[in-house]
Amino acid sequence: MIHLYQARDAILGFVDLGGWVVALIIALSVLSGAVVLWKLWQFYRAGVGRHAPLMAALAASDAGQPTRAIALAEAAPSHLGSVLALALQATDARDRLYSYAETPLARLEGGFRLLDAVAQTAPLLGLFGTVLGMIDAFRAMQEAGQNVDPSVLAGGIWVALMTTAAGLAVAMPLSAILSWLESRMAGERRMAEALIEGALRPGLTVPQAESHARSGLAHA
Question: Domains in the chain: how many in total?
Answer without folding.
Answer: 1
